[in-house]
Write a structure and sequence with these properties.
- The chain has two domains: about 220 residues; about 120 residues, Arc Repressor Mutant, subunit A, CATH 1.10.10.60.
- The chain has 16 helices and no strands.
- It has about 375 residues and is mainly alpha-helical.
- The protein is about 70% helix and about 0% strand.
Length: about 375
């Protein structure tokens, strides 16, 4: 009797499944705040779906599961509808200053209901009319594509709102980074493009396209690459324990939507006093400065300071502080021509080189190095003229 050999083509999916299990275990063993732990539970389900899909692909290619039980079929098919909601709810919880458990349970019931209903329907059909199971694939693919379009769109709206709020509160966004969530959104959009565009096109050219192009193989590679990143779960979105976020959210919620605009003169007076305070005490050199710190130092309320800085629609607290820092950095670049750009950035109150370059280019439309070179040339030319 010939011994059974697992096909080599099935091994990448076994490795992919193991990688996603490792990622899940790393998430579960993190020391986390309560709200972050709840948010990460959705990320665990999200990664669990990919682990299940990798396992299913391995079992199919290795022919280890010839007649899958109805429970497995229902779970494997319905799990596709968990991907979109999990990413959206993860982003929602990681970018919301405060939420309660009752609200969360209502959200869960609404967003996970389609997957639950489909699971029950698949279970009933596979037990009663197994020959009709293929007809449910059309329903599954339709619902799957809709979720891959709607949920990234909703999550992007959340991210935009969170970024706008953070720009109004913090001058340093290091602890409120949004790039981590963008990775998951990019994955969802890629899956949507694959299902909507690439898969039909490949199927039209060659019905056997999966023999040389399998989306699950790319997902397995993504899982392997994530395993190599030590900071894979180093999330830095909203710090739910930050009292300033809660205070700012409560102040924004308490502000009437139809508040009269008669406070515009007061805003200009407040801004003038803030400028004087910055000139005298140079608070912007503190790279951890927040809107709360500025409000406390100025004696104005959080809402008053925020309204004054936002009087100009193109401005916010983040831009206001960085403009002051860029002005100081521009002077230091010329006064200390031999000093490293990174040292100049730190002296001006920036916390990273990337944040410095981004702010400098935004406010002066050039890079720090180019600005220094140009200013030194002008200075040298003026000196020779004299």
């Amino acid at each position: 009797m010939t011994p059974y050999m697992i096909p080599i083509s099935a091994l990448p999916f076994a490795i992919g499944c193991v990688c996603f299990v490792i990622l899940i275990s790393r998430l579960c063993t993190l020391q986390q705040r309560v709200n972050t732990r709840i948010a990460n539970s959705f990320l665990v389900v999200f990664l669990g779906v990919f682990a299940l899909q990798q396992l299913d692909e391995f079992l199919v290619l290795s022919k280890l599961l010839q007649n899958p039980p109805p429970l497995y079929i229902g779970l494997q098919m319905a799990s596709h509808l968990l991907i979109g909601p999990c990413v959206y709810l993860y982003v929602t919880l990681m970018t919301t200053a405060q939420f309660n458990s009752d609200q969360l349970s209502k959200i869960n019931r609404f967003h996970f209901a389609p997957a639950g209903l489909l699971f029950i329907l698949i279970l009933i059909v596979s037990l009663s009319w197994p020959a009709q199971l293929g007809a449910l694939e059309v329903l599954l693919i339709t619902a799957y594509v809709i979720s891959l379009i709607v949920y990234p769109w909703l999550a992007i709206i959340r991210l935009k709102a969170s970024l706008g709020r953070n720009l109004n509160i913090f001058a340093n966004l290091e602890k409120h980074d949004l790039s981590f969530a963008r990775y998951w959104l990019l994955l969802l959009v890629s899956l949507a493009l694959y299902v909507l565009c690439l898969e039909p096109m490949l199927n039209w050219f060659n019905p056997d396209y999966e023999s040389y192009f399998n989306a699950n193989l790319w997902i397995a590679a993504a899982g392997f690459m994530l395993c190599l990143k030590n900071d894979f779960c180093a999330q830095a979105l909203t710090d739910h324990s930050d009292p300033l976020l809660v205070e700012y959210s409560l102040a924004a919620a308490a502000k009437p939507a139809d508040e009269p605009q008669g406070d515009a003169p007061n805003c200009s007076i407040i801004l003038e006093q803030l400028n004087r305070l910055m000139s005298e005490r140079q608070l912007f050199l503190n790279n951890q400065l927040s809107l709360g710190d500025l409000a406390q130092a100025s004696g104005f309320s959080l809402h008053q300071v925020s309204a004054a800085l936002n009087a100009d629609k193109d401005s916010c607290f983040y831009d206001y502080i960085n403009a002051l820092r860029v002005a100081v950095a521009a002077k230091l670049l010329v006064v200390h021509p031999s000093k490293a750009v990174l040292d100049i950035a730190m002296d001006a109150g920036f916390n990273s080189k990337s944040a410095f370059y981004s702010a400098f280019k935004k406010h002066l439309q050039t890079t720090p190095s180019a600005y220094r070179e140009r200013q030194l040339k002008l200075k040298f030319r003026d000196a020779n003229k004299g």
